[in-house]
Specification:
Helix 12 packs antiparallel against helix 15. Strands 1-6-5-2-3-4 form a six-stranded mixed beta sheet, with helices on both faces. Strand 7 and strand 8 form a beta hairpin. The chain folds into three domains: 19-235, Rossmann fold, CATH 3.40.50; 248-341, Tyrosyl-Transfer RNA Synthetase (Orthogonal Bundle); 358-432, RNA-binding S4 domain (Structural Genomics Hypothetical 15.5 Kd Protein In mrcA-pckA Intergenic Region, Chain A). 41% of the residues are buried. It is 45% helix and 13% strand. The protein starts with 18 loop residues before the first helix and ends with a strand. The chain has helices at residues 19-25, 35-43, 62-76, 106-121, 138-141, 146-152, 159-164, 166-172, 180-183, 185-200, 212-226, 263-271, 275-285, 290-302, 308-322, 324-338, 348-356, 369-375, 382-390; strands spanning 31-32, 48-53, 80-85, 133-136, 202-208, 231-235, 248-249, 252-253, 360-364, 394-396, 399-400, 416-421, 425-432. It is an alpha/beta fold and 434 residues long. Homodimer. Belongs to the class-I aminoacyl-tRNA synthetase family. TyrS type 1 subfamily. This is Tyrosine--tRNA ligase. It catalyses: tRNA(Tyr) + L-tyrosine + ATP = L-tyrosyl-tRNA(Tyr) + AMP + diphosphate + H(+).
């Protein structure tokens, strides 16, 4: 087995006959147009395929990461990816299950297009014979008049079929209903596939299974207009083994932007993966081979207390998203806070990000440790704080607090402090100066 400190290079697993077989083994195929035809297609000469990402937020998230890594796997098998950033569809947004989206301004959408484009580019290879290309659907949608859109594209869609799409049906049955704007989204996405077929010979679209209605709208449109068969497949929506929503941490999405979700927070998210979920996560989110993952599956069964699979998962994904240096800093911070590492050796930015993930408080310089223990919630009262100190169970910045009169120093990098009560209860202190 590869060392925990080594990160697997992006590669396909040669033990599978085709990339389709590997995708299926990794649990990435939930629904598809024709599994046998897709297997043959991906085993044959290079094809062009695409996946779209709408700028409905300033960053992609873990659900999008499933698509990005799926695209990379198919590219590694020799096929050519198109990463579509939806400058036009982002102005509308695909229908959510319960309520209408708030429309963002064109200026906001344009800014988010640039940000998402930069994120997509990090995951694909833009060199070689099957180099990736980034496209923006605003390029072919903006010049199209409403009349031309209705005459050339809209006439190929049947309202009855559109009403049966899951996302539309859910909204029609809700109190909110659905506007014509969001109802038309599937036509726009279908037009994207047609345009990419015409421009680049694109014959496959991938996406989440919740997008299946939108994916098949393009398949149907191309068949109707061009008389050819193209394909789509949808990856499953990933949930935790207990049925809860995946990709959330304390109610917040795990974003790929380091400013919205720090490398430390991402590392901790994966480190906290349940034993029942970790093997499935290794399959989807890493490039570890089948043999390596099966070894980790055995370790989870025989030595779950070592959490070897979780440590490997956390390191792999955080490195994939944020790079080696940021991951090393996150690992060092985790070890310093929860193990035997040196808090004073951490860089200020990583330490501050780590402390924001803990219970934390802002206190004035020179505040008493007793007060800080109460404000961070490590104790419920000043008397409990004094009792904990008297029992030798409180430390500040790694040093045991000996007296009730001890004050917060902010002696760690960046002028912060770490309070510890007992072995596992930690809190961060941000010092307000002057």
């Amino acid at each position: 087995m590869t060392s925990e400190t080594t990160v697997a290079a992006p590669a396909i697993d040669p033990t599978f006959d085709t990339i389709w077989d590997e995708l299926a083994w990794r649990g990435l195929v939930h629904v598809s147009t024709d599994p046998d035809a897709l297997r043959d297609l991906l085993a044959g000469p290079p094809i062009v395929y695409y996946c779209g990402f709408d700028p409905t937020a300033p960053s992609l998230h873990l659900g999008n990461l499933v698509q990005l890594l799926t695209m990379r796997r198919i590219q590694l098998a020799g096929h050519r990816p198109l990463g579509l950033v939806g400058g036009s569809t982002g102005l509308i947004g695909d229908p959510r299950p319960t309520a209408e989206r708030t429309l963002n301004t064109p200026e906001t959408v344009a800014e988010w297009v640039a940000r998402l484009r930069a994120q997509v580019e990090r995951f694909l290879d833009f060199e070689g014979e099957n180099a990736a290309r980034i496209v923006n659907n605003l390029d072919w949608t903006a010049p199209l008049s409403a009349i031309d859109f209705l005459r050339e594209i809209g006439k190929h869609f049947r309202v009855g079929t559109m009403l049966k799409k899951d996302a539309v049906a859910a909204r029609l049955n809700s109190d909110a209903g659905i506007s014509y704007t969001e109802f038309s989204y599937q036509i726009l996405q279908g037009m994207d596939f047609l345009e990419l077929y015409r421009q680049y010979g694109c014959v496959l679209q991938t996406g989440g299974s919740d997008q299946w209605g939108n994916l098949t709208s393009g398949v149907d449109l191309i068949h109707r207009v061009e008389g050819v068969s193209v394909h789509a497949f949808g990856t499953p929506l990933i949930t935790n083994s207990d049925g809860t929503k995946f990709g959330k941490s304390e109610g917040n999405a795990i974003w790929l932007d380091a400013e919205m979700c720090s490398p430390y927070a991402m590392y901790q998210f994966w480190l906290n993966t349940d034993d029942a979920d970790v093997i499935a996560r290794l399959k989807v989110f890493t490039f570890l081979t089948r043999a390596e993952i099966e070894e980790y599956e055995q370790l989870v069964a025989e030595e779950p207390f070592r959490r070897a699979a979780q440590k490997r998962l956390a390191r792999e994904v955080t490195t994939t998203v944020h790079g080696t240096e940021a991951t090393a800093a996150a690992v060092a911070a985790s070890e310093a806070l929860f193990g035997a590492g040196d808090l004073t050796a951490l860089d200020a930015g990583t330490l501050a990000a780590a402390l924001r993930e803990l219970p934390h408080a802002q206190v004035a310089a020179g505040s008493g440790v007793v007060q800080a223990l109460v404000e961070t919630g490590l104790v419920s009262s000043a008397s409990e704080a004094r009792r904990a100190i008297g029992q030798g169970g409180v430390s500040l910045d790694g040093q045991k607090v000996e007296s009730d009169d001890a004050v917060v120093t902010g002696g760690l990098p960046g002028g912060v402090s770490v309070l510890r009560r007992g072995k596992k209860a930690l809190a961060g202190l941000f010092i307000a100066r002057g």
